[in-house]
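can u do me a favor
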């Protein structure tokens, strides 16, 4: 440190220092990330002697030495590890610092703690810059171990817990990995609409978007405040129009001046306008507008039924059939009244589409993508994964390493059913019947990945009766070129297919499954004009987090879970 700095008080020395030369300072804050201290290979010991400003929330705090100083475990969310901070009583009222949840910003000097302690570095505070106090009697997230179920009732505070913060960092890493993988392979990121008039999966499970209800309620209130005109009111207005019209006639017959006639015509037009408004207003009826006994959606915001999307696939295909390799990554919605640990009403999907590619290419891309994400977590998020292994699933890191390093098994649907039937004959009991034609249940998928092969499995060529109309019909006319990637812990992680590019075949399939052609004319145009072989898949992002972390309930791996009866915040 320069001699001129020696004469400055500690807080001013901190301001004068260029922290970027010593320890990483946040680019847009006057503090150092705790991760840049304790996340070093030496645990921060090599930074001893450096002055830093740190900020975070107290995980645990305790007064020591008969109240002469306090130990604080500080965490700012940048990593799972805490920074131990020591504050002398002369710097602050210690009782206001030690409560779990308190936010503090402090200046101090990093020092190596005495031998035999767990920490490799600690911060001796020279100045307490600010304190965000907590009333321990009211704070709902104490330092005691809390269940994940309990934390769902405190969504706005649960990110302060070690588990939810770790999941947030893992989720962030997987999102970054997703974009990195597709960008590295020359895919274009396309934003598909949240609001859609396309029915990709079946309207029965879609959330409807409408302004008819709010407009109806607004009209009802307005009609109570200003009742519609009666027939007497309208008749009176008609009489005024008649009288004004007669007045104009008389003036013209009497050859009155132009200004008189003009003024009288203006009165007539005003009376006609008033009558028109009254007649229009008399037609207003409370309630949702109907036509022929059905809701009249032509009166709705989009002049037709609209929904929250269940998939961006159909829309993103339009770009695949123009710029070749694309992907969309965003929220999707399902109005399914399910309370299982695997279902959400709002969840995120990663959906790539590849032009000039077939089912084999689709499987190759899906496998490479899953492996890429596993390696990304092992390389860039290992501290959080170690926390998950210690706290929830001791096998999660081994599972990531296994998936990242070995080829996926690939078997046809028919072969999968035969293996399951063989297991049943050997005494294995499944809750769901096994026979050709069924949609494989989660227990079937997990048997194949966790028991039979003990590795990821890709099942392909499914019966057409259990798959969507847009999947390419195989030559046997019984199966389609579909594939599912099954992984240990969660079962199906990815579902995809080669898309049907033949116009006549897909047109017939739409009719075969009982859908109207009109809403899909634009989709058929992709086959009418310059059709191309293409494929794609969808990965349920939350399922990938379940697979990676070993967390049991999907409601705990999305920041703000939506499910039947709950949409907090």
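np, heres the sequence
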């Amino acid at each position: 440190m320069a001699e001129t700095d020696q004469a400055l008080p500690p807080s001013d020395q901190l301001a004068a220092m260029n922290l970027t030369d010593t320890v990483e300072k946040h680019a847009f804050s006057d503090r150092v990330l705790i991760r840049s201290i304790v996340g070093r290979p030496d645990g921060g010991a090599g930074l001893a002697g450096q002055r830093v400003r740190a900020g975070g929330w107290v995980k645990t705090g305790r007064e020591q030495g008969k109240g002469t100083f306090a130990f604080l475990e500080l965490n700012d969310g940048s990593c799972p590890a805490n920074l131990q901070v020591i504050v002398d009583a002369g710097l602050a009222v210690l009782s206001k610092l030690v409560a779990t949840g308190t936010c503090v910003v402090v200046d101090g000097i990093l020092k190596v703690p005495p031998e035999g302690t767990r920490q490799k570095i600690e911060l001796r505070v020279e100045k307490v810059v600010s304190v965000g106090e907590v009333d321990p009697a009211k704070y709902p997230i104490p330092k005691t171990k809390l269940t994940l179920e309990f934390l769902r009732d405190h969504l706005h505070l649960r990110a302060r817990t070690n588990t939810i913060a770790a999941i947030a960092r893992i989720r962030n890493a997987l999102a970054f990995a997703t974009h990195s993988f597709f960008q590295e392979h020359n895919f274009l990121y396309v934003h598909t609409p949240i609001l859609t008039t396309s029915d990709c999966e079946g309207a029965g499970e879609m959330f409807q978007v409408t302004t008819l209800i709010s407009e109806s309620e607004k009209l009802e209130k307005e009609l109570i405040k200003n009742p519609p005109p009666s027939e007497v009111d309208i008749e009176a207005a008609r009489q005024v129009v008649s009288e004004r019209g007669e007045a104009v006639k008389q003036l013209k017959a009497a050859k009155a001046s132009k200004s008189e006639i003009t003024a009288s015509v203006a009165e007539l037009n005003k009376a006609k306008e008033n009558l028109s408004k009254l007649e229009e207003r008399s037609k207003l009826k409370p309630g949702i507008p109907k036509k022929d006994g059905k809701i009249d959606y032509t009166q709705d915001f989009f002049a037709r039924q609209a929904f929250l999307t269940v998939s961006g696939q159909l829309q993103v295909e339009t770009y695949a059939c123009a710029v070749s390799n694309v992907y969309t990554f965003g929220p999707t919605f399902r109005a399914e009244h399910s309370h299982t640990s695997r279902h959400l009403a709002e969840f995120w999907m990663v959906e790539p589409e590849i032009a000039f590619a077939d089912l084999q290419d689709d499987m190759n891309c899906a496998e490479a993508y899953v492996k890429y994400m596993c390696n990304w977590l092992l390389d860039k998020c290992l501290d959080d994964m170690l926390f998950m292994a210690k706290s929830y699933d001791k096998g999660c890191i081994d599972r990531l390493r296994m998936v990242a390093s070995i080829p996926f098994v690939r078997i046809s649907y028919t072969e999968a059913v035969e293996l399951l039937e063989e297991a049943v004959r050997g005494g294995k009991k499944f809750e769901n019947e096994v026979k050709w034609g069924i949609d494989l249940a989660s227990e079937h998928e997990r048997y194949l990945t966790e028991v039979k092969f003990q590795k990821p499995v890709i099942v392909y060529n499914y019966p057409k009766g259990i798959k969507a109309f847009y999947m390419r019909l195989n030559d046997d006319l019984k199966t389609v070129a579909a594939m599912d990637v099954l992984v240990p812990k969660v079962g199906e992680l990815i579902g995809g297919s080669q898309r049907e590019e033949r116009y006549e075949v897909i047109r017939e399939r739409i009719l075969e499954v009982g859908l109207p052609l009109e809403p899909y004319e634009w989709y058929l145009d992709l086959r009418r004009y310059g059709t191309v072989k293409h494929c794609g898949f969808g990965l349920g992002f939350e399922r990938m987090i379940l697979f990676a972390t070993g967390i049991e309930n999907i409601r705990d791996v999305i920041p703000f879970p939506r499910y039947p009866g709950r949409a907090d915040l």
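The chain has three domains: 34-139, 165-208+306-556, 210-294. hope that helps!!
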